[in-house]
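User: Structure please.
Assistant: Input sequence and predicted structure:
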Amino acid sequence: MAMIGKAMLVPLCPIRQYLRRGYSAGPAFQYILVERKGQHHNVGLIRLNRPKALNALCDGLMTELNQALDTFEEDPNIGAIVITGSEKAFAAGADIKEMQNRTFQECYRGNFLSHWNHVSFVKKPVIAAVNGYALGGGCELAMMCDIIYAGEKAQFGQPEILLGTIPGAGGTQRLTRAVGKSLAMEMVLSGDRISAQEAQQAGLVSKVHPVDSVVDQAIICGEKISRNSKLIVSIAKEAVSGAFELSLAEGNRLEKRLFHSTFATDDRKEGMTAFVEKRKANFTDK
């Protein structure tokens, strides 16, 4: 949560028909742009689009983001999703003007921010392509994704402490799991930022790329993932995600059950048969 901008909520338009035609979703949304990318149009790209507010996350933007994620989740041709912002800011935080006058009672009764973590429940892989500022809610949104690619000038931080509050969309939890207690404590308690290079060294970021190529590299990664069985990819994602929630013993039991379950799929049979026959696998499970 942290930064700037003034939210203005408007009625949201349906986008499913628009996306089926393969267009960007310019007129369908106020706060995001959506399109299909990749040689086979099998990667969904969601671009946060509040340039004057450095992509500050307002409730309307998060609602639109969730709608786009659900649409790509239901699309059998989409194998991975990329979320990005602009070169200046992935998202500079949550919309402080939208939150400024909220009371404890409003936050508690309305379970404020409860729908902001929807991205973490998407079954398909989600890649964050981060340029510029990923602060507060922007850092939290990136951490909800499965893979983070960063531009060379990206900055990550949880500066909520400077506003008299704490992260409220998973920042204290996901950051600690990603970078360890000491660095997470330093960032959360001081509000200090870390660079893309420091984030990679700490394990928060998978790869660092030049600013002008980070989105393209994320799409390439999404295409590579999309060539695999979409069903097995989702199962693999569930297994890895379990490592953050379960003990080692319980995680291993989950992995074994999921591994066994792959033997009930056509794609497991096709993958192994193709390997034995020294040919390319033709995966069909969606």
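The mean pLDDT is 90.
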